[in-house]
Structure formats: C-alpha cells, structure tokens
Target: prephenate dehydratase
Amino acid sequence: MSADAGDPGAPRRAAAVPAPAGGAGEAAPAGDAGEAALPRLRVAYFGRPGTFSHEVASRRFGQGADLTPRRTISAVFDAVAGDAATYGVVPIENAVGGPIYDTVDRLIRREGTGAELVVCEELSLHVTLSLLGRRGAAPRRIYSHFVPLKHCGDWLRAQYPDAQILEAESTAEAVERAAQDGEAWAVGNKGAAAIYQLEILVPKLAVKGENVTRFFVVGRTAEPPPSGGRTLLVFGLEHRPSALVAALSALGRYGINLTRIVSRALPDSPEEYLFLVECEGSTQEPSFKEALALLEQHATGVRSLGSFRVSQKYE
Model:
C-alpha cells in the first residue's frame, strides 16, 4: 500500500478514509482545494453494536464512515461482495480461542461468492473484558460469548457458584440478554454498558494470558504494499509423503517467515485439505514472486488472498 494511502485497497480518491495510526477517528482530507467532498465509506462489521468488532471498526474508520452491523460473518462478506459495503471488518483469530473458522471458510471459498474478496489490512485489539449488570442481588445467570468464557469462566464460577454460566452468540447479545433479565449479568465490552443501560460492575476481569483478537479488513480491490506487510495464501496438496514440508520449504528457501497456518477439509471431499497460510512479505517483492513460482511446483491451486499492511494494536 502506498505511503499516502489511508484507504486499504480502494481505488484512489474513492472515499475519505481515516488514518489507521495516530489519527484514529479523524477523517482524511477530502482532497485538493476546491474539490468536492468524497463519498462516505460504508463499512460492515460482524456482530451488534457494542461488540469488539464494532469497537475495532469504529476506531479504525472513525466518524468518516457509515458503520452497519451484520449478524453473521458470511453476511459481512456478502455485503462487500454485493457492493453494499466498501469494506468488512471480521475477526480472524483470538489468542485463546484460536482461528475463527467462519472467517477462514469464507476466505478460501470461491464458488457462489459473487466477487472474490481480498484482505486489505490486519488490525488487532487488546481485549478488556468487563462484568456488566445491575447492582443488587447476586446474579442467577451470567452470559457471554464462548471465547471470553474461556478466559474468565473459572473466575466467574469461583466468585458466583450459584449462577449459571451461559453462552451467547456474541458479547453484545450477552449484554442485551442481561439488560432484559433482571437476574442476569454479562461479560463483554464495557462500551456496551451505555448502549444497553447497564452498570460496569467490574471494569477489568482477570484473564488467562494476553487476550488479543486479530481482525481482517476485507475489500474487493487490493493495493499491496511495495514491500513489507503480510500476504495471505491458499493452496491444496497432493496425497504424498512430505507434501506440506515441500510446499513450506519453497517459502523458507526465500527467507519468507510464516505467521499463521490453518488447514480446512473440503466439504465435498473430507480427505482433501486446503491450507490458509499467512506470511511476511508482499507479492510486489521480486523474491516473493520467485517463492510463489516455486510453491506452485509443490502445491495445487496456489492463489493470493491479498498482500496487506499490519496496523497498530488497539489497547
């Protein structure tokens, strides 16, 4: 991505995009003097208002974009593919919960998706979990998404042994249930407290390890950085010994470092797998192009799902 491009992957001057670092929440200049104001970005994000996806989308794109929630990850991809949104913000991995397979599956799918989307940017959020509810009697039910419950479920059971610990579709849905149920609390984003008129009972819950969630910004058009950044690849393998070793060695031969690898069985052929591989570098680099040419000799259906920059972690 060019140094002056605040918009991850859209054609130049297509919209006013906030700077990804240092100026979060502030719109980029609308253009040269006398130039008409640029159209607002349309950004779809996974979940409801008050989720961590909503927080990341808000902090990345700020008030210069129209943010629209989508109930499923597939709906985010469909919105971008159908031009109902310029970009989509979806989670890809949590430090404890692991890969978000709904996102992985939509990235590697080609058939029936309309437009093939690419990754334009990677964002990350240091997640702070809060306990939300109404002060008074101890809760009989505590709701949250399964990933936060992996982080603090043991603490909740120790502190509130008489409460049921129940899973919700998202942290925002958990908070909404708590708002509708006078005997329930929720674990979620403290920003959701104001939305659903709850109190922040415990601002920061203790968690196991560092709780970081990574997100992809997906779009229809890629603008890879001339160097640096990361690239997302997908490929298959033939059924033979050391096939994966040979494929990854093709990247290693050119000094390309892997940062993520996920395997998924094909729905119509469960004995065959596709591999989603994230690695350092850009498809614009000559050495990276040579590595891809060598990879194609050891793997099948090699394709890039975008070279992209990795932006700062939001605290």
